[in-house]
TrEMBL record:
This is Phenylacetic acid degradation protein. Keywords: 2Fe-2S, FAD, Flavoprotein, Iron, Iron-sulfur, Metal-binding, Oxidoreductase. SUPFAM superfamilies: 2Fe-2S ferredoxin-like (SSF54292), Ferredoxin reductase-like, C-terminal NADP-linked domain (SSF52343), Riboflavin synthase domain-like (SSF63380). Residues 17-128 form the FAD-binding FR-type domain. Gene3D superfamilies: 3.10.20.30, Nucleotide-binding domain of ferredoxin-NADP reductase (FNR) module, Translation factors. GO terms for molecular function: 2 iron, 2 sulfur cluster binding; flavin adenine dinucleotide binding; metal ion binding; oxidoreductase activity. It holds the Pfam family Fer2. CDD domains: fer2, PA_degradation_oxidoreductase_like. It comes from Sinomonas humi.
């Protein structure tokens, strides 16, 4: 692994995505509707699958009985490690979603020995505190005390548990508070691992389970997390005024509620890290396979140029089609990187080199990335006659 790759990943948590077939080595049942899937990474690919706790991978598959390719993103739920033979592994949790084609298939049929295409790790839901090596959690700054707080719901625990395990093990001066919301006790993912963390770090790890459909002894930990309950938690349970970094992961409504509440309390935006599993409006999945578009010879067309892996591509996009740059690029280059196509993961980001675009949603790019001209191609549509983007930048 080159120093340049390491430095780039430290700075942004992002690198060029590539898929490789990996074998499933274990499938472990977490709840009635969630599994943990372990992929074996051979020594030859171990460097490509190094990751920073909090990052995700995309899984790509063609399901039985379907001609369509399906891609879904899942956060990595384990601490990075290498084995004696130089191999490693990637662990993700897959929770069955209502109507979710891939998650339902995985929960019902995925088994050890199966092979799926797994994207190299990506994502910026990582600590901004010192973590200098992609696969070296012991390099975290241990010279000063750190206080972290995470608010997660449902499968939002997946990246959070990897972050918590890493920072607690690496720095004896770390305190970590976790508010974890679920419908009921039977829905709690990684219940044993969370209990083990509490036993291992009784004075440094505080776990607050909030169950919306089960009565707990404390009324504060029962019912849905709304603005009033969140404010009470921050005022009485969590030392909210001296937190070094916040990690928020879950559905849009909860994450936005916490962000708004923290902003109202004067918490600097730079201290708040967040990741969405849904945006609340998952109605536009355009770009999943590149929907068919017919160029309009007589009407107005946008000229879209893009650079990927050192090669340039050009495609015309009819103005009447209201097509995203990602969808247009996929029609001529099916290897254009993307995962969620919903503005959440950031896999499809590219630098806008020429022209102007309208970006409908952005839940992935940091403010400094926007300032440097990066856009999410799955959400960006041309607003000038010619547009050029660089996926390699």
């Amino acid at each position: 692994m080159t120093d340049q790759l390491t430095e780039g990943a430290e700075a942004t948590g992002r690198r060029r995505a590539s898929f490789h077939p990996l074998e499933v080595s274990e499938v472990r049942r977490l709840t009635n509707d969630a599994i943990e899937v372990t992929f074996a990474v051979p020594p030859a690919l171990a460097d490509e699958y190094d990751y920073i706790p909090g990052q995700y991978v995309a899984l790509r598959a063609q399901l039985p009985g379907s001609d369509a390719e399906v891609r879904r993103s899942y956060s990595i739920c384990a601490v990075p490690q290498r084995f004696e033979d130089g191999s490693s592994e990637i662990r993700v949790a897959i929770k069955k979603d209502l109507g979710g084609v891939f998650s339902t298939w995985a929960n019902e049929h995925l088994a050890p020995g199966d092979t799926l295409d797994v994207m190299s790790p990506a994502g910026a839901f990582i600590s901004k505190h010192k973590m200098t090596g992609l696969n070296d959690p012991t390099s975290i700054d241990t010279e000063r005390e750190h206080t972290f707080v995470a608010v997660a719901a449902g499968s939002g625990i997946t990246p959070v548990i990897a972050i918590a395990k890493t920072v607690l093990a690496a720095n004896e001066n770390v305190r970590f508070d976790l508010v974890y919301a679920n419908k009921a006790a039977m829905d709690v993912m990684f219940v044993e691992e969370l209990a083990d963390l509490k036993d291992k770090y009784p004075s440094r790890f505080a776990l607050h389970h909030v169950l919306s459909r089960e009565q707990r002894i404390s009324p504060l930990l029962s019912g849905r997390v709304d603005a009033e309950k969140l404010t009470t938690l921050l005022n009485t349970v969590i030392h909210a005024d001296d937190v070094d970094e916040w990690f928020l992961c879950g559905p849009f409504e909860l994450v936005q509620l916490v962000r708004d509440t923290l902003a109202a309390r004067g918490v600097e935006p730079e201290k708040v890290r967040f990741e969405l599993f849904t945006t609340g409006t998952p109605t536009n999945l355009e770009g999943n396979i590149g929907r068919p578009i017919v160029e309009d010879e007589s009407g107005k067309n946008f000229d879209i140029e893009f650079r990927l892996d050192g090669l340039s591509g050009v495609v015309k996009s009819p103005a009447a089609a209201n097509e995203t740059i990602l969808n247009a690029a996929l029609r001529v280059r099916p290897d254009v990187p993307f995962a969620c196509a919903g503005g959440v993961c950031g896999t499809c980001r590219a630098k806008l080199v020429k022209g102007t675009v309208d970006m409908a949603e952005n839940y992935a790019l940091e403010p400094d990335e926007l300032e440097r001209g990066y856009v999410l191609t799955c959400q960006s549509r041309p607003t000038s006659d010619a547009v050029s983007v660089d996926f390699d930048a």
